[in-house]
Amino acid sequence: MIARTTGAAIRGIMVALMVLTPALYLPVSSTNGTEIVVFLAILAFFLTFAEYNSAFPSFIEFRDAPPVNRLRFVGLMSMITFLTLICKDAYAPSDLTGLFYALGLGIANVVDFPYSPVRLVVLVLPADANAPLIELVRISASVAYVAALVTIASFAYAVKMRGWPTGNGAFNVWTNLPLFDPTKGGDVVTRLQRDGRLNISIGVLLPFLIPALIKLLTDYANPISLSNPQTMIWTMSAWAFLPASMIMRGMATLRIANLIVEKRRAYSTTESTQTA
């Protein structure tokens, strides 16, 4: 009980610090900005603490199947931290911020090519956007996208090379997939495979579709202003992290479906041997 409560509190504090990171290092755009950020950090702490302190799952998936959520947190925290330091270079440059800006510029020169997701994000900017803003968005989108790719590759390594989730003991579908109802019609394996492929397909397409949708919606509504550094950080992080999270979920569900198939095959072989 004490270990679970302590672990839940540490997780809540880390999530709250992640929410606060851009506000701690970058200027606030409005008078109520600080209060809003603090409220969101407190809310994130309580939601995370309540989820991991409870013995019964609610909405967070794979909470007892590391390192899925750990990789998600590290990936998102890396995006936010890197983008915060890159944006801070425009306000309070230092050797550290200059290093991250130069690293981001090098990544952007590799990732930003015609028809890439990063190029589509840059094209979303209004025609009157100034050159420094365009360059900052280009670098931020590139760093966030590469961080998302590294997160996906890390989970793929855990699945293929480390045999996730068998190394963590028995996989409990109820606690790790609380939103999945195994009794809701159809074969479980077929549903898991369909959900996995659908999540991966949507995750691959979203980095391309989101900029296109935003571009279409600019004719009917005011677009999000990326001139504010905090808005830009959270927008780029969401654009890169949500598809990565969906791809990881798809990989996880496909892996679980394969494990169920292997269990069924082993059980069928055992029954056939006993009958013979």
List the helices and strands and how they pair.
Elements: H1 2-25, H2 33-53, H3 68-88, H4 95-111, H5 117-124, H6 131-160, H7 173-176, H8 188-217, H9 229-275
Helix pairs in contact: 1-2, 1-3, 3-4, 3-6, 3-9, 4-6, 5-6, 5-8, 6-9, 8-9
Counting DSSP E segments of at least 2 residues, the number of strands comes to 0
* Oligomeric composition of the shown chains: single chain
Helix content, binned percent: over 70%
Would you list the SSEs in sequence order as H and E? HHHHHHHHH
Low-confidence stretches: none
Q: Mean pLDDT, nearest integer?
A: 88
Q: How far apart lie the N and C ends? A: 49 Å
What is the approximate shape?
A: globular
Largest sheet descriptor: none
Word description of this protein:
With 276 residues, this protein is mainly alpha-helical. Helices cover 73% and strands 0% of the residues. The chain has 9 helices and no strands. Helix 3 packs antiparallel against helix 9, helix 4 packs across helix 6 and helix 5 runs parallel beside helix 8. It is globular. The N and C termini lie far apart (49 Å). The model has no long low-confidence stretch (mean pLDDT 88).
